[in-house]
Amino acid sequence: MNETRFWMIRHAVVDENARAILYGVMDVPLCETALSEQGPMYAALARRLPRPAHWKVTPLSRTHRTARAIFAAGYPEQVLSVEPDLIEQSLGEWQGLPHAELPSKLVNPQPPFWPLAGDEKPPGGESMVEVIARAGAALERLAHDHRGEDIAIVSHGGTIRAAVAHALAVHPSHSLHLSIHNLSLTCLERHDAGWRVTCVNELPGY
Questions:
Q1: Distance between CA atoms of residues 21 and 111, nearest Å
Q2: Whether this model's pTM surpasses 0.70
Q3: What burial class does residue 33 get, using C-beta atoms within 10 Å of its C-beta: 0-12 exposed, 13-18 middle, 19+ buried?
Q4: Which domains, from first to last, does the chain contain?
Q5: What is the pLDDT along the chain (206 residues), one digit of tens a residue?
Q6: What is the C-alpha to C-alpha distance for residues 1 and 3, in angstroms, rounded to an integer?
C-alpha cells in the first residue's frame, strides 16, 4: 500500500478552570476527574489504533499525557515525537481572556462553534487560514517521510479541523462547522492521487 494513514486524536478534557478561558497554546493541565472516569475510552482507543504506528504529539503537555493514558490502557508504549506545527491555534494576546470578553474584540462576526472566524487574526496570534497552512504542510511532510505507514497524532481541536480542511481543500470558515470532541478519532489518508477522509470525530466505543 502506498497510502499514508493519519489517526488524529484530540487530547483529553482540560481542567475546569482552563475551560473558562481562551487557552489556545497555553500549557494547561488535564482534568484529573475526567482522566480517572474515562478509562474505557482510552482502552477503546488502545484497541482501535493500528500497530505499529509512528506516534506524534505537540509541544503541549496535554497531548503527551493523553498519549500516555492510551498506552496505560493497553497500547504498547511508544516513543513520542514532538511536531510543533501540529499545535493548537495561537490566540496571541487574547489567550487567558474569559470567553465573555472576546466578542467585543472581534473584527468579524463570531461563528457559532469556534471562538474566531476563519480569517480573524488575534494580535500576536494566528488565523485559521494560517493554521491550515502550517498543519497542512506538516501532514504533507509526514506523508512523504512515512509513505505507506500509519501515524498516530495526539493533537488539538483546531488543528484537527485544519487537517480536515487541508485534506478537503475547503474554505477555512467551513472547517469551523466540524465537531471535534475530546478523545475523538479523525482518520485521513494521503494517496498518490490526493487526500481521502475516512472518518471525523469518531468517539471510541466501549
A1: 17
A2: yes
A3: exposed
A4: 4-202 (3.40.50.1240)
A5: 689 999 999 999 999 999 999 999 999 999 999 999 999 999 999 999 999 999 999 999 999 999 999 999 999 999 999 999 999 999 999 999 999 999 999 998 888 888 999 999 999 999 999 999 999 999 999 999 999 999 999 999 999 999 999 999 999 999 999 999 999 999 999 999 999 999 999 998 75
A6: 6
Torsional class of 34: left (φ above 0), alpha (ψ -120 to 50), beta (otherwise): alpha
| Distance between CA atoms of residues 109 and 117, nearest Å | 7
Distance of CA 186 to the CA centre of its chain: 9
Amino acid letter for position 2: N
For residue 6, give the C-alpha cell: 493519519
